[in-house]
UniProtKB/TrEMBL annotation, chain A:
Organism from which the protein derives: Jaculus jaculus
Pfam families: COX7B
Keyword hit for Mitochondrion: yes
Predominant location category: mitochondrion
Pathway(s) this gene product operates in, as recorded in its UniProt entry: Energy metabolism; oxidative phosphorylation
Compartments where located: Mitochondrion inner membrane
Residue ranges crossing the lipid bilayer per the database entry: 29-48
Entry annotated with the keyword Mitochondrion: yes
Name this protein carries in UniProt: Cytochrome c oxidase subunit 7B, mitochondrial
A biological process term (GO) from this entry: mitochondrial electron transport, cytochrome c to oxygen
Length: 72, 174
């Protein structure tokens, strides 16, 4: 019981020390970089995929209405 | 065993010039000035190298030296704080500290997405300045007509295109 308590006190002390560690670049800016990077990526690719005139040639099944092709 | 001897031999003979680490802020009283050993042979403790040859603090105050003397006696007489202080003299970080999580992945993934976004811009530029004229067969009208022709021919009627078309109701199968 006693050694366990001793370990707990050591653990608590090291916990206090880790919580006081200085925040690094990633702690300060990581969230902002992640958010802005993903928003930029999603915006650019949504625009590029839909508005720029790239032909994806998706399957007509369930999507395309037929049109008569024979010259009468 | 042999590698430790080799390492200390390298330390003694190579002498001058800082290693590849350069000025990577050792912090505190990490290395005494006289010892210009290459860093890679005497790293801070890590999970893969938990017992470096040299202690973290080599320049000790009088109080710390007294503590080292006390360490030579029975360890039972050391208080908890003294034990922790001795640990801190020997090692830069505890295992809990060196194994702590970091937010580095956020920066990494953010930059990954940024460069993927740049690639999207690149492809946009390519569409405008590099792609050839879109063939007339790829306009919506022509594609609708081609589709009608394919269905008239009953192309791939078993599992493919024509099998998805309901010829009675003249609509796509649900």
């Amino acid at each position: 019981m006693l050694p366990l308590a001793r370990n707990a006190r050591l653990q608590v002390r090291s916990n206090q020390q880790t919580m006081k560690r200085a925040s690094d670049f990633h702690d300060k800016y990581g969230n902002a970089i992640l958010a802005s990077g993903s928003i930029f990526c999603i915006t650019v690719w949504t625009y590029t995929a839909t508005q720029v005139g790239i032909e994806w040639n998706l399957s007509p099944v369930g999507r395309v209405t037929l049109k008569e092709w024979r010259d009468q | 065993m042999f590698s430790r001897a080799a390492r200390s031999w390298v330390l003694r003979t190579t002498g001058g010039g800082l290693g590849t680490r350069g000025t990577h802020s050792p912090g505190g009283s990490a290395r005494s000035q006289g010892k210009m050993a290459p860093y890679y042979t005497n790293h801070y403790a890590q999970r893969s190298y938990p017992m470096p040859d040299e202690p973290y603090c080599t320049e000790l105050t009088a109080e710390q030296q007294a503590l080292k003397e006390k360490e030579k006696g029975s360890w039972a007489q050391l208080s908890q704080e003294e034990k922790v202080a001795l640990y801190r003299l020997q090692f830069r970080e505890s295992f809990a500290e060196m194994n702590r999580r970091s937010s580095e992945w956020k920066t990494v993934m953010g930059c990954v997405f940024f460069f993927i976004g740049l690639t999207g811009l690149l492809i946009w530029w390519q569409r405008v300045y590099v792609f050839p004229e879109k063939p007339v067969t790829l306009t919506d009208e022509r594609k609708a007509q081609q589709l009608q022709r394919l269905l008239d021919m009953k192309s791939n009627p078993v599992q493919g295109l024509a099998s998805r078309w309901d010829y009675e109701r003249k609509e796509w199968k649900k």
